[in-house]
Specification:
Low-confidence stretches: 1-25
Radius of gyration: 18 Å
Shape: globular
CATH architecture: Beta Barrel
Pfam family, one: DPBB_1
Structural class: alpha/beta
CATH superfamily: RlpA-like domain
InterPro entries: Expansin_CellWall (IPR051477), RlpA-like_DPBB (IPR009009), RlpA-like_sf (IPR036908)
Order of helices and strands: HEEHEEEHHE
Number of domains: 1
Number of strands: 6
Domain RlpA-like protein double-psi beta-barrel: 30-122
Protein name: RlpA-like protein double-psi beta-barrel domain-containing protein
Signal peptide: 1-20
Strand content: 25-35%
CATH class: Mainly Beta
């Protein structure tokens, strides 16, 4: 009984290691964050987006064909953290780990966002 259970566990662990997509593995970065207003437009993931939604557009280096659509991302700035959902692509994001936050998410993260404009953040998939 023990050897069957252990064998099944080992096979499951190996399979998840071998077949786990690199795009879906935990990733984190430090980069520049900007903000945008989607104004009810449709994002690259196919959902209608509002300015007040807590969403993020990933830069092209992280986008990976939309494989992260719907995933939660934690974004940190000067002791503040927001959770946002990947809903869009940001072709003009700054740097390899740059992201674009909806205005609602940016305002929650940085109350002085209008004056600050572009901020340096740390982010990771939840």
């Amino acid at each position: 009984m023990f050897s069957k259970t252990f064998s099944a566990f080992l096979l499951t662990a190996l399979a998840s290691t071998v077949f786990a997509s690199p795009a879906l593995q935990a990733r984190q970065g430090s980069g520049l964050a900007t903000y945008y207003d989607p104004n009810g437009g449709t994002g690259a993931c196919g959902s209608v987006l509002q300015n007040s939604d807590f969403i993020v557009a990933l830069g092209e280096d992280t986008w990976n064909g939309g494989s992260h659509c719907g995933q939660t991302v934690n974004v940190q700035y000067q002791g503040n953290t927001v959770q946002v959902t990947v809903q869009d692509l940001c072709p003009g994001c700054q740097g390899s780990d740059g992201i674009d936050l909806s205005e609602g998410a940016m305002a929650a993260l940085d109350p002085n966002y209008i004056n600050d404009g572009v901020i340096s953040v740390a982010w990771s998939f939840a």
